[in-house]
Specification:
Layout (H helix, E strand, L loop, with lengths): L2 E7 L5 E7 L3 H5 L3 H14 L4 E5 L5 E7 L3
Antiparallel strand pairs: 1-2, 2-4, 3-4
Length: about 70
């Protein structure tokens, strides 16, 4: 299974881990799907979600994100 993993900092300076599978049709059909999922995760985190699932444009759960402590 192909997986994308990102660790980014939010506006508060906290790290957010984002991970999702990239081996389904959404990543072939939509070239910007990786970028979109990272933006969705960061937007949800900025609105108060410390963790959550990520769904591709086809409606499949492909991964998730979580704010890391420390």
């Amino acid at each position: 299974m192909a997986t994308a993993r990102y660790t980014v900092r939010n506006e508060a300076g906290r790290r957010v881990r984002i991970q999702f599978a990239t081996d389904n049709a959404a990543f072939e059909d939509y070239p910007n799907e990786r970028r979109r999922l990272v933006r969705v995760a960061m937007a949800r985190n900025e609105h108060g979600d410390r963790e959550g699932r990520l769904m591709d444009l086809n409606g499949n759960t492909v991964g998730g994100f979580r704010e890391l402590r420390g």
